[in-house]
Amino acid sequence: MELEQQNNRLSNERIFTTSRVWEESKELWKLAGPTIVTAVSQYSLEFVTAAYVGHLGTLELAAVSIVQNVIKGFVYGLMLGMGSALETLCGQAVGAGQFNMLGIYMQRSWIITLTTALLLTPVYIFTSPILKLLRQDKHISELAGKYALWSIPQMFGYALNFPIQKFLQSQSKVRVTTIMLLSVLGVHALLNWVVVMRFSHGLLGAAMVGNLSWFLLIFGQLIYIMSGFFPGSWTGFSLLAFSLKSFIKLTLASAIMLCLELWYFTIIILMVGWLKDPEVAVDAVSTCMNLDVWTLMIALGFNAAVSVRVSNELGAGHPKVAKFAVLMAISTSAIIGTIFTVMIIALKDQFPKLFSDKPPVIYEASKLGYLLAATIFVNSIQIVLQGVAVGAGWQSLVAFITTGCYYLVGLPVCVLLGYKFKLGAHGLWAGLLIGVLLQTAILLLIAWRTNWNKEASQAKKRMRAWGGSTDSMST
């Protein structure tokens, strides 16, 4: 009711008042808070695994880091990107009051993601020869191949999990998932200590614990959805789920947008593996990336919140509220990013010890501290802009921008600094940061110049063309 009154007043009154800032801030935090805890907890499953494995040895940490950042990063990005199509469609359907389509959209996404997981299974099976083909260290590649093979069930876990989370997120129903994830994370940490450390089952034990943890989470969420808590949006399985033609278009655009983002970081890890002394270099950069991604989970909370706010308000025909939500989300995330930046600089000699007790790794990771801090700040803004893009349905445009900034500018600079000027990991990371900076600047300009009234009209057309009204009539 409070937000509806706000929507009605915005047409005739100034947007930037203390009361409106407070109201929008509360709405953002109501969405972002549980989502942040969910995202941090979900990523912490991998974070905890890396932390335990890191104390087995540099080779084991390098192998798991390569799998997490290259193989799982490739698959995770694809699955998350495909699931992100639901942020646009489900969010705008909620804004338009078409709750009956949400379960259908989730089922369509399951069909696509599970089929994709099946097709990608050979990537896990042939991880070792793939990494060797990419000129990674022989010993790291062989151990990574074993760990990837044992982790195949997790890929199907991703395929089921991300559509479920977008279904819940679009309806602002993430608290139960948050509680489940925290519980699973506690079990995951305990089992890793028992299986990996106490009983010395090494990488096999780490992989088995990871498989179990993901499916505990999925079964818990499925029980929640199918137990009658969503009578308007979950009405059971439907043959309408197989009407995929229009849905695939947005799904692929979403997947490409996010994959181009994540694969950029994956390529950097591979390039680090081509440096001298790859075990130490990979461990050091992976340590920094693990921390970078962990802090990104905070920004991802605002990514999800602004995506829901923008898609809901555009679907409801409230463009000024959508624009205001964008400004608030960017400002709030930037403030938090600044806090993390200061913390990283202050603790740059300490944070590597979370992942390794090897002095060379700790030294190299601490030297990357300033670049890591700058990346964390820029990402706190960039990730929110990605959420704006998903909420408004700009996935194809962002994919085009990302290609130019990352692959035509960022990677050539990485090669130039890392190899030509022999700056090693520092040069590679500096090139990575330049690509991210350029992309962020362009997305900020686009968001600033956007005609939000036109975007609201586009949202209505999308609902009619991609499943809303049409499918509703079909039932």
From TrEMBL:
GO terms assigned for molecular function: antiporter activity; xenobiotic transmembrane transporter activity
InterPro entries with a match to the protein in the record: MATE_euk (IPR045069), MATE_fam (IPR002528)
Main location, first listed in the record: membrane
GO cellular component, one term: membrane
Pfam families in UniProt: MatE
Keyword Acetylation recorded: no
Membrane association type: Multi-pass membrane protein
Spans through the membrane: 109-127, 147-164, 176-195, 252-274, 294-312, 324-347, 367-385, 397-421, 427-448
Location(s) in or outside the cell: Membrane
Keyword list, A-Z: Membrane, Transmembrane, Transmembrane helix
BP GO annotations: xenobiotic detoxification by transmembrane export across the plasma membrane
Keyword Amino-acid biosynthesis: no
CDD domains, alphabetized: MATE_eukaryotic
NCBIfam families noted in UniProt: matE
Annotated family: Belongs to the multi antimicrobial extrusion (MATE) (TC 2.A.66.1) family.
Protein name as it appears in the record: Protein DETOXIFICATION
Organism of derivation: Chenopodium quinoa (Quinoa)
Gene responsible for this protein: LOC110705045
